Structures are given as C-alpha cells and as structure tokens.
Amino acid sequence: MDPIVILIVILGYFSLLLVISTITGKKANSKSFFIGNRRSPWYIVSFGMIGASLSGITFISVPGWVLTSKFYYMQMVLGYLLGYAVIVHVLLPLYYKLNLTSIYVYLKSRFGIVSYKTGAVFFLISRIIGASFRLFIVANVLQITVFDKLNIPFVITILITLTFIYLYTFKGGIKTIVWTDTLQTLFMLTAVVVTIVFIAKSMNLGLNGLASAIIHDEHSTMFNFTEWRQGSFFLKQFFSGAFITIVMTGLDQDMMQKNLSCRNLRDAQKNVYWYSTLLVPVNLLFLSLGVLLVQFSHFKGVQIPEYTDNLFPLLATGNHIPAYLGIIFMLGLIAAAYSSADSAITALTTSVTIDLFEAEDLQEDKLRKLRWTIHVVVSLIIGSVIFIFRILNNEAVISTLFKAAGYTYGPLLGLYAFGLFTKLKLHDRWVPIVAVSAPFISFLIKILLEGIIQNYQASFEILVLNGFITFAGLLIISKKVFAKYK
C-alpha cells in the first residue's frame, strides 16, 4: 500500500477532528474542559465510550487473543455487566450527589488530604503508563507500515501525533472528546464490519456459512467451568471482569469524566446501561474477526507471524486485500488508538489541575493558563514514556510495566470500599504506606500461589486480593481499631 496515500488519509482524518474541535470549542471554558458544562447528550457519550474502552491494542490483537485464549475473554465481558451495575447504583449517585469534577475529591471529604492525594497519584501513575503503552503499540505498527517507508523517525511520529491530540483537545477538553470519540468509534466499528464482510465474500461464505465458520472453529470455545487452576476459569474471569470494571471505569477519572459530563444522574445512568450492553456484542464482533483473520490467512496461504499482533496489519497493508480496505483498517486503527489517548490526556490534565494543584476555584483566566500548561506537560510526559519504551525495545519488559500499572488500581478499590462500606476514620498520614505495600504483598502472594499449587495460573483475581489487602491495612490504621490496641 502506498504510504503517501495513507499519510494523506491520516492528515484528512486529523483535519476532521480539528473541525469538530473548532465547533465544540466555541465559548469553551474550564467547566467545558473538565465536565462539558454537564450538557453532553447521554446517547452520544454512550456510543463514544465504546471506542475509548476498546484501545488500539484491542484492534490489532484480536488474532492473538483467539489463538492463545479462544473466546474466554467473553466470560470477563459478562462480568463487566455486574461491575457496571455497581457503578450505576453506587458510584454515580455518590459522584453526582457531591457534584464532583474529579472523583478523587471524595477521598478528601471522607478521609483527609493525604488519602486524597494518594488516590490521585495512583490514578496518574496507572493512566500515564497505560496510555503510553497503548499509544506505543499502535505507533509502532504505523511506524513499520507507513512512516519508515517515508524515512520519518519514530520520535517525529510521536511528536506530531501528540501535537495533533493537543490541538484538538486543549480548548474544549471533554466537551470535544465526547464528539470525537463518537466519530472514532464509528470508524473503528466500520473497519471491523467491512473487514468481516470482505473475508466472508472472499471465502464464499453467506450469512449462515459465516456464523458456522465462527461457531465451529476450534478457537471459539467461550466457557471454562472445570479447570479452576487456569486463568480462564469462569468464576475467575467473571468476577475479575466485574471488579476490573469497577476500578478501571468507576474509579478511573478518564472514564468517569465522560459520565459526569451528562446533564444529570439519570442520563449518566442510562449512558452506562446502554454502553455496557453494547460492549457485549462489540467484543464478540472483535473476537469473531480474530477467528476469521486466522481462517483467511490459511485460505490465502499467509503464514501467521510469531508475534500474532502483526497478523491484522500484515493482511491489511500487504497485497492480500484491496487498497480501500487497507485504508479503512488504518482509519480504524488510528481511531482506536487516539480515542483512548486523547481522553487519557484530558483526564490526566483534569486530575493534576484539580487534585494536585487544587486550582478549580481559581479565576477563569488563571485557571485556563494553568490548565493549558499542564496539558502540554502531560502530553510531553506521555511522549517521554513512549520513548523510554522504544529505547527498552523489549516486549517482555514493556508488558511487565503495563501489568505492574494494573496493580495500582487495587489500592483505589480498597480505599473506596473502605469509605463506602464502613464509617471508620483513618490515621490519614499512614494511608500511603498501606497503598504502596498492598500491590507488593499481592504480587508476592501471586508468586507463592503459583509455586505451591500445581498448574495454578493467577489471573485478574489478584486485583481483588490487592483491594482486600488494602482494605485490611486501612482497618488496622483506622482510629477506632488503633485506639483499641494502643
């Protein structure tokens, strides 16, 4: 595929985002940036959040998923529904009742300033590493398939990308992202559907044949009710999905900022219900695409690469599919990557401005200048982390860093659970000790379990363990318990 054509498509795509930014950024102020003046239509937020939750990693990694994990991921997706129910009926009412812009302000009112800062810092660490990792993976694909052929260095690719994201988000913030996410979700899903239709036609599969090819494939097994030692065991996946949703959506400023931009609590709840319901068929669609890509590669005699994440890009940018489909793939890939990156940068800017600088009550002119500065700094930090990943150039190390960032959500789970389900007060200054210790203890227990129990594979249940250890540590440093044993 001609890289010049792809480059023109990318520039056209970003130009469209800038047009949306110009329209939505008119008369925008800091309230627009942080919570969209609470005027976002719930149905627009709902559709756009699909793209924000399904990153570029999801878009390019589906063949790898089905080859290594079959359809077991759907067990976790079903667990998401339970997690979203908790968000709808517990967390959203709390956030709207307190009229929060940053959700971590709750920790300040419940426990104190140290707990508040601790929660915010754990979010910042998690989101910076997570957003950088996702953007790095996709940027690598674009670099290999497009920019290397144009002799554009990786550093320039990242700088241009982050500059574009800054340009269309710095003014309107979440008010703009609600609409750009909708566009990006549309491109991403269009790319998936068009690819499936093309594969079906190429392999002479009608609708029934397509369904049969997916259902009867050896990789389409969806449930594991017997092998409890494996990470794919149903109960592990289901409840892990529920808790992952609670922490990575309900306790994550990035995802909740969009919900808080809705007009009122009822609209925000409708948004989450529809969004969570749509995620089930959308994830099933992605996994089905993974099966079909593997089948199509066999049909075409294309060898599946050792690094299976490269299969979809290999098929899309080679001579195996028409050029128009390759362009649609690129648009879908860019949309999937940047719909999560732009909202992450905006959420990080919001959290730093409100949680670290506590600047929400500044005069608008001063607040806007501070916010713009922080927005630049956050973009540069993410760019720097991406360059570090590039320098490391070690997939195992980078993946380990990404997984380590996941451990930082456990303390948030423990803090909020303790705040919501007890009335105890804390020795606030000791909270960071508990929050830092819990992930390390969880990791050690994981290693111990895998060493003691034969063939045991620790999965996302470690998140629950992490939250439980945090909860237990907070109980120990609570004023009532501490006073009893003092």
The CATH homologous superfamily of the largest domain corresponds to Sodium/glucose cotransporter
- Examine the coordinates and then state which fold CATH places here, giving the name of the CATH topology of the largest domain: Sodium/glucose cotransporter
Strand content: under 5%
Number of helices: 21
Termini separation: 72 Å
Query: Could you give the count of β-strands?
Result: 0
Global outline: globular
What is the percent of helical residues? Answer: over 70%
Query: Uncertain regions: pLDDT < 50 for 5+ in a row?
Result: none
User: Largest sheet, if any?
Assistant: none
Class by alpha and beta content: mainly alpha
Radius of gyration from the CA trace?
22 Å
**CATH architecture assignment name of the largest domain:** Up-down Bundle
Describe the structure.
This protein is 77% helix and 0% strand. It has two domains: 3-407, Up-down Bundle (Sodium/glucose cotransporter), CATH 1.20.1730; 412-486, no CATH class. The protein is an all-alpha fold and 486 residues long. The chain has helices at 3-24, 30-35, 42-53, 56-69, 73-97, 105-110, 113-147, 154-169, 174-202, 207-215, 234-250, 253-259, 265-300, 311-317, 323-356, 364-392, 395-407, 409-421, 431-452, 461-476, 479-485. Helix 1 (3-24) packs antiparallel against helix 9 (174-202), helix 5 runs parallel beside helix 11 and helix 8 packs antiparallel against helix 16. The model has no long low-confidence stretch (mean pLDDT 84). It starts with a helix and ends with a helix. It has 21 helices and no strands. The protein is globular.
